Structure formats: C-alpha cells, structure tokens
C-alpha cells in the first residue's frame, strides 16, 4: 500500500500518513485534512511535556482520523477482539485536561489527548477535546506538518531547545512565554533568577554557577517514579573507554580507526583535556532509533559515566539486561540437577541494584533503553559494549537548578546533530544547526545572547540531501563573523 491514500468515504479530502513506534506494536495511518496541509503546530517546552517525555520539547499535531495500518478499520489504542491492526498504549493523565499515550513496550510517546473543558452545570461532561499525534512517529513530514512556533518557553528558565532551534527553512519561529499569543521572549532570554546568578561582573568574570546545590544536578520523570542525580566529574569519570559518538565524528564519513578512539580520549569530559573537568558533553540526535522510540524528531542526550549517576539516596547503581537474571536462574537449575557444587555463578538481582522505577526496552541485541512505564518518559540509553558510559535524557533535568540546558553542567555540541543524515525532516535539522551556530557565536563572544542572523549554508550540500536554506539575508558584519566561526562548506 502506498504511504498515503485517500479514504473515499470521508466527506473531507484526507491525506493519510503511515506512523509507528520503534517496536512496531503500534502501527497506524494518521489522517489530516488535505486542504489544511502543511499543518503548522507548536513545539511545547512546558515542564509537563519535558518531564513526561525526556525530550527538551514535544511536537504533537492535531489528527483528524486514525486508521489501522493494514485496513480501513479505525485504529484502537487497545487491542479489540477480532481486530488485528490495533495497538497497545499506556495512558498517563499528566494534568486535569490532558492524557498522554505511550507504547507499552518501547515507550514511544504517540498521542496527546486534550479532554476539553467541563461543560458548566453538567455532570463532568466535556467539550472541545481533540487528539494529537507525535510528529516524530510519522513516516514523512515534509508538506504534511511543520513546527510553526515555540510555546511555554518560560518554563525552561534558560530558553531550552528554543535557543538552538530558532528558524526552519529561513522562517523564524515565534517564541511565546506561555501559550500562543502570550508575551514573546527573544533568543538568549533567561529567567531573571538565572541570569542574575550566572551574569558577568564588572571584570567579566562569570558569577557562581547558578545551581541551588552545586554538587548534584537532579533529574526526574513527570510521575516521579524515576529520580536520579549526577555529580560533578571526579577521578572515576575518566575510567570508561568509549568510541566516539556520531555526534562528534559522523560514522559514515569518518575512518573507523578514528571512530574507535584508539587514543582513548575522554571526549565526554569538558573542558577537553583538562586535569579538572567540570562538565559533561550533551547533544541532539536525529537517528531513526531515537525518533521512533521517543516520537519526537530530536532526542537530546547527556553523556555521563554511570559512576557519576546516583539514586535519590545518593547511592550508585548498575544497569544490566533484565533477562540476565532469568538466564542465571535456568543455569542454576541445570547445575543443581547435575549436582555440581564447585561452579561459581554470578549473584542474582538481590546483590545488584538497579535504579527504581525503570522498564527496559531492548531495541536490538546489546542496545538498551530504560524508561518510566507509568508516564512513559525516556530515561537512559546504553550499550552492552559501553555499560559504564550512559546517555541520560536531558528533558528530565530539574530546570529550576540551572535551566533546561543546564549550561553550568553540560557543554553542548553546537557543530553537529547526531545522525542528521537520518532526519525525517532535513529542514528541521538544518534550522537546528543554524540556531546552534548562532548560540556558539554568542557564547564565544561572552555577550548577552541576542538574535544573530546567519547567511551562509551550514552543511555541505550532498546529493539528495536538501538541508541548505539560502533565503536569509543579514548584515555583512554578522555574515563575516559566522564564516570565521565554522567551515562554510
Ligand atoms: Zn513500541
Ligand atoms: Zn507542554
Ligand atoms: Zn514517570
Ligand atoms: Zn539517536
């Protein structure tokens, strides 16, 4: 079946787009009114969206109709008797008016339902409700949906992802403090409490790191089932050995010997090469795996040694494959049957402590994703070959400590988006790269951030990849600074 088709029985012409979560348990077709395409929607930065997803912003789009992927039957959120094409979603009510639905197996955040206002004088009856679908789950977005504006930027304290994603296809995205129509906040805006604490004094020295408590940065999912903290880099932070991530060296264009990091550079610690690093590397990823397990086109990760992650009591924990214990049980039974007493078998879960509240999704052998099964938030991603260096979801950061970007703790990679070649919407990644370069210039100059317009292409033009936006004009001064700052082609 073609990715899009019209449904003749619908009175209004409808365009259908295939959508799915990573594990494929939920697969469906989302219908949009053809006359309204492309649908401009919001990127929401509110605390509920960030903490219930683990992403820095959430991007859902109004959906008109939902059909099963393999038939013209309506798609149900729970399996219905006699209907093969239905899904299996966990519902989580994150507010009085809103319910989020995520895949029970891979945690992809596929839908948001606004329940509507309670009708006055009624018995809890509601009106004006609607359903939205996660744009990252759609097989294609170009010409169908586009991020049009940022909302609830105020909740981020420091501008969050909105400072990195400023425009798409040359069009600036308005940044509303709250809902659409509220006060607009300029790029570089920071909440007063944060800008005061982090501002430079007369000698140009940065003020104290704007954190409530400088020794631990806290993370939590929306329902608070999962809570952890990270500590400042210490002597154990350089113990892991790890290949470079695609974020730093694109795997398809870099020599394997380099990617493998034979020199054993501790690339996750910043400043690079420092004897006393104070920060960790963070960056955005656009890979298919991140997109389909999250439901958002971008997943922002922090790279942090497991040794620097603590539970809510400040104690360390381990991450391991859930099936390990089952395998050990089978081995133990077999050994008991044979009467072998001298064989050493590793201890079971009792002696190994995992962080409370996590559920595991094994996306492929040796690749793990840990999430909250109650609210659906992405928490960690890790690999069997690198179990002591973990990716933590930036969206769970306690933004009241140091803002949603936590720049007192993280050094953001502003030169590349991981796996940008896999992006479903090259325009979004192109816009993100432009915004990141603008942020880089502002940070390097040490000036209070202000809007910087860029004029030059940010990515080399590759056959078949249309990242480059050429429409913008800007002053010669900012163009010259920009060309100095990056490789122009
Ligand atoms: Zn799934
Ligand atoms: Zn929100
Ligand atoms: Zn949760
Ligand atoms: Zn990824």
Describe, in plain words, how this protein is organized in 3D:
With 489 residues, the chain is α+β, with helices and mostly antiparallel strands. It has one domain. The strands form seven sheets. Strands 17, 18, 19, 21, 22, 23, 24 and 25 form an eight-stranded mixed sheet that branches. It has a five-stranded antiparallel sheet with strand order 4-11-8-7-6, with no helix packed on it. It has a three-stranded antiparallel sheet with strand order 1-2-5, with no helix packed on it. The longest helix has 20 residues. The two termini are 40 Å apart. The structure holds zinc ion (ZN) (4 copies). One zinc ion binds next to loops.
SS strand fraction: 15-25%
Q: How many DSSP-defined strands?
A: 25
C-alpha-based Rg, rounded = 23 Å
Q: How much is the average pLDDT?
A: 85
Q: Profile the largest sheet.
A: 8 strands, mixed
| Low-confidence spans | 1-8, 198-212, 447-489
So what's the overall shape? Answer: globular
Q: So how many helices?
A: 8
Brief summary:
Helices cover 15% and strands 24% of the residues. With 489 residues, it is of the alpha+beta class. One zinc ion binds at residues 221-223, 225-226, 372, 374-375, 377.
Top keywords for this entry?
489 residues; alpha+beta; five-stranded antiparallel beta sheet; globular; disordered N terminus; disordered C terminus; binds zinc ion
């Amino acid at each position: 079946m073609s990715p899009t088709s019209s449904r003749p029985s619908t009175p209004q012409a409808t365009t259908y787009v295939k959508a799915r979560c990573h594990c494929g348990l939920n697969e469906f077709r989302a219908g949009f009114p053809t006359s309204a395409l492309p649908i401009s929607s919001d990127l929401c930065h509110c605390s509920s969206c960030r903490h219930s997803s683990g992403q820095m912003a959430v991007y859902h789009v109004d959906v008109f109709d939902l059909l099963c992927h393999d038939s013209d039957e309506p798609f149900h959120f729970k399996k219905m008797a006699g209907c093969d094409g239905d899904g299996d979603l966990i519902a989580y009510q994150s507010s009085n008016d809103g319910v989020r639905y995520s895949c029970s197996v891979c945690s992809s955040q596929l839908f948001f339902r606004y329940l509507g206002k309670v009708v006055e004088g009624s018995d809890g009856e509601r009106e004006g409700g609607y359903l939205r679908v996660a744009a990252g789950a759609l097989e294609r977005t170009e010409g169908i949906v586009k991020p049009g504006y940022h909302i609830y930027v105020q909740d981020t304290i420091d501008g969050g992802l909105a400072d990195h994603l400023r425009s798409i296809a040359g069009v600036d995205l308005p940044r509303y403090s709250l809902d659409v129509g509220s006060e607009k906040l300029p790029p570089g805006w920071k909440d007063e409490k944060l800008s005061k604490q982090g501002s430079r004094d007369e000698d140009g020295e940065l003020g104290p790191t704007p954190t409530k408590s400088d020794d631990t940065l806290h993370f939590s999912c929306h329902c608070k089932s999962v809570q952890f903290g990270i500590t400042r880099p210490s002597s154990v932070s350089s113990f892991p050995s790890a290949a470079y991530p695609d974020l730093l060296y694109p795997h398809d264009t870099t020599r394997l010997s380099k990617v493998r990091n034979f020199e054993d550079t501790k690339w996750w610690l910043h400043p690079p090469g420092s004897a006393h690093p104070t920060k960790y590397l963070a960056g955005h990823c656009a890979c298919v795996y991140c997109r389909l397990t999250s439901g958002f086109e971008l997943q922002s990760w922090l790279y942090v040694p497991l040794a620097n992650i603590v539970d809510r009591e400040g104690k360390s924990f381990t991450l391991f494959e859930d099936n390990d214990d089952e395998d050990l049980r089978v081995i133990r039974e077999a050994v008991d049957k044979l009467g072998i007493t001298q064989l050493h078998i590793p201890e079971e879960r009792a002696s190994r402590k995992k962080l409370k509240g996590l559920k595991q999704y094994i996306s492929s052998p040796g690749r793990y994703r840990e999430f909250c099964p109650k609210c659906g938030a992405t928490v960690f991603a890790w690999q069997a070959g690198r179990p002591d260096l973990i990716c933590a979801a930036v969206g769970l950061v306690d933004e009241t400590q140091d803002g949603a970007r936590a720049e007192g703790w993280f050094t953001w990679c502003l030169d590349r988006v991981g796996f940008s070649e896999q992006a479903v919407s090259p325009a979004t990644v192109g816009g993100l790269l432009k915004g990141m370069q603008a942020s880089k210039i502002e940070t390097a100059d040490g000036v209070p951030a202000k809007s910087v317009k860029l004029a030059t292409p940010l990515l080399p033009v590759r056959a078949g990849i249309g990242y480059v936006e050429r429409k913008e004009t800007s002053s010669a001064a900012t163009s010259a600074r920009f060309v100095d700052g990056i490789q122009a082609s």
